[in-house]
Amino acid sequence: MNNSDLYKTIDSPGEEVLFKDKNSKFFGYSFPISKEEDIKPIIESLKKQHHAARHWCYAWQLGVGTIQYRSNDDGEPSNSAGQPIYGQIQSFEVTNILVVVVRYFGGVKLGVGGLINAYKTSAKLSLEASNILEKTIDIKFCITFEYKNMNKVMRIIKEKKIKILDQKLELNCKIYISVRKTISNEINDLFSTLYEVEIERLTS
C-alpha cells in the first residue's frame, strides 16, 4: 500500500462460504478483531455451531505498524491449513481480522497438497465475501487551554477539518482530537506554537 497511514480491514463478519472437495466440506468465515482475546469466544461459538466437524483451522492478524499474527492447523498436517489461510490474509492485505475454516471430513483423504488448496480456497472465498474497507491510521491529541483562547484553537480545527472526539468547555477547556498520522506532526506544531495552548499526544 502506497499511503503510509492507510490500512484495510473489515468491520463486520463476512458471509459464510462453502468449498467442497471429495466429500469434505470446508466452511469459511471472517471476523473483525481488535485484540487477541476476541479470538477464543469466536472459535468456541463456531465449535458449538459445527459440533460434528473435524477441524477448526484459523489464522489471524492484528496491528498496523507492529504486526501480530498466528495460524493454527488444529490437527491437520503441519502448515497445511493455518498457513494457507494466513497467506490469503496477506494476499488481501487485511489486518485486525480472523479467518476460520471449519472442515467436515468426507471419508476420502485429500493429501497435503489437496488440503493446502482447500484451506487456501476457502479463506479466499471468505475474504471475497467480506466487506473490506480502507481506514486511516489516526493519532489522538488532547488540547488544553483557557476559555479566552477558544477562538484561535477552533480556527485551526475548522481550517484543517480536524475531527473532534470529545470536548470539555469550561474555564479550563480540553478538546480531544483525532488526525491522520501523515499530518499529525504538522497539527502538533500548529497548536504548540499557539500562546497559552498546550497539546499532548495520547497513546491510545
From TrEMBL:
All copies of domain Impact N-terminal, residue ranges: 22-125
Gene3D superfamilies xrefs: Impact, N-terminal domain (3.30.230.30)
Pfam families assigned to the protein according to its UniProt record, in alphabetical order: Impact_N
InterPro entries reported in the protein's UniProt record: Impact, Impact_N, Impact_N_sf, Ribosomal_Su5_D2-typ_SF
Entry similarity comment: Belongs to the IMPACT family.
Name of the featured protein: YigZ family protein
